[in-house]
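Long-time lurker, first post. I've been practising inverse folding by hand and with some scripts of my own, and I keep getting stuck on stretches where the structure tokens seem ambiguous. Below is the full token string for one chain I'm working on. Before anyone asks, I'm not after the true native sequence, just a reasonable design that respects the backbone. If someone could post their per-position residues I'd love to compare against what I wrote down in my notebook.
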């Protein structure tokens, strides 16, 4: 059967076809020839507005915050705490002056009995004739010097060792900064933790023989190892508090708890040092530092591979429970029940100008910072168990974000991120 085409219908079809063709020609990506005359001659594909996506080189580049603007400017602005070269130069000033004095004495330009004024910046003061040490006002200058030292160590290790390591392990985005923070914690506590055990082993309090916190009080004479360890810890925590207060590290959800932890820690350090209770101070340091090694290790493993992190996390929970709770509660129990082991003559007078510190009420002054520290630890312990139970019974130890998300955003943390920051 023949089909008759209506001339008007064919003309309409041609008009519609022509209209579609003209419309397609007005889309630059579909137009291979000259632009239509209905389009302005300068019409072309325009780039999307907004910031272009950074290249891999730009993403991996060190942030401007950690680049020196020159030593003197870094010194004036306080950036020296972030710049390893500047903090090292600042630390080397007393070192060079100390050895310069040694050379002048060696060559007779200064008398042999000329005291080295820079020694108090670098070495513990208060040496007694028997070779032991007592506390000294110059301990302040020692701590100030080693705040600079720990600033250099921290930034050198995080920028020049841990940051390249993180990128080599395939860590991206905000996780790089978190990895370097926790890697530095492993570095520091991995050194000071064993040092604390070594110092404690030389004391009568070895392994938490708590009665010797009080027997033969006051413990006003310290070995070189004990005094150096204590003051280095004090310098570290002062430096970390400055870092926290300046918000150099991105604040976490538990920022207030961290501030409280640092304040209580400094309170415990200085108060125990002033009132000759360094034995109990060393014991508290060990409980904190050893558990922090495994906390940081669990978090670093989690940043690299969440599938590999559960065994580390489980081991960390066990270590944390023993050190942060069992041993800390044992110390608290000692304060509560054994304080009276101190001779009555040494716990009946509060006279700081006479270096007499203990009266009956000081028992609670000793108890308070350790108890507050335990409350903060219990808060974190609750968070740890909540994360562990959720991981086991619901979501597992996984991060469902895609690689192109901002891994540094607060509130989008991995399981390891949700652990408390120390």
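-- Answer (accepted) --
I ran through it position by position. Result:
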């Amino acid at each position: 059967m023949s089909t008759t085409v209506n001339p008007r219908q064919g003309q309409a079809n041609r008009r519609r076809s022509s209209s579609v063709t003209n419309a397609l020609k007005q889309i630059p990506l579909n137009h291979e020839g000259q632009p239509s005359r209905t389009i302005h001659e300068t019409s072309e594909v325009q780039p999307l507005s907004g910031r272009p996506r950074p290249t891999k080189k730009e993403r991996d580049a060190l942030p401007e915050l950690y680049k020196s603007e020159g030593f003197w400017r870094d010194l004036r602005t306080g950036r020296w705490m972030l710049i390893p070269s500047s903090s090292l130069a600042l630390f080397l000033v007393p070192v060079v002056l100390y050895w310069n004095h040694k050379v002048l004495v060696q060559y007779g330009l200064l008398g042999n009995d000329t005291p080295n004024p820079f020694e108090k910046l670098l070495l513990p003061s208060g040496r007694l004739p028997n070779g032991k040490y007592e506390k000294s006002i110059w301990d302040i200058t020692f701590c100030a010097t080693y705040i600079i030292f720990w600033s250099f160590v921290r930034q050198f290790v995080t920028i020049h060792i841990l940051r390249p390591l993180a990128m080599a392990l395939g860590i991206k985005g905000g996780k790089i900064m978190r990895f370097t923070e926790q890697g530095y914690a492993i570095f520091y506590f991995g050194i000071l933790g064993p040092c604390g055990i070594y110092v404690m082993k030389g004391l009568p309090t070895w392994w938490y023989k708590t009665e010797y916190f009080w027997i033969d009080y006051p413990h006003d004479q310290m070995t070189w190892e004990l005094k150096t360890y204590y003051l280095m810890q004090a310098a570290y925590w002062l430096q970390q508090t400055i870092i926290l207060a300046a918000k150099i590290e991105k604040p976490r959800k538990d920022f207030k708890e961290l501030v409280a932890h640092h304040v209580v820690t400094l309170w415990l350090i200085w108060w125990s040092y002033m009132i000759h209770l360094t034995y109990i101070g060393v014991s508290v340091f060990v409980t904190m530092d050893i558990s922090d090694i495994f906390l940081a290790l669990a978090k670093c493993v989690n940043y690299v591979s969440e599938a590999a992190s559960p065994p580390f996390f489980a081991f960390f929970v066990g270590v944390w429970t023993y050190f942060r709770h069992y041993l800390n509660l044992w110390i608290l129990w000692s304060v509560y029940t054994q304080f009276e082991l101190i001779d009555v003559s040494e716990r009946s007078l509060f006279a700081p100008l006479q270096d007499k510190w203990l009266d009956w009420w000081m028992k609670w002054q000793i108890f308070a910072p350790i108890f507050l520290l335990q409350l903060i630890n219990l808060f974190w312990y609750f968070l740890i168990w909540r994360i562990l139970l959720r991981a086991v019974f619901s979501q597992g130890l996984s991060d469902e974000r895609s690689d192109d998300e901002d891994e540094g955003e607060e509130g989008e943390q991995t399981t390891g991120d949700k652990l408390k920051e120390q």
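A couple of notes from the structure itself: Residues 170-221+237-393 form one domain. The chain has twelve helices and no strands. Happy to go over any region you disagree with.
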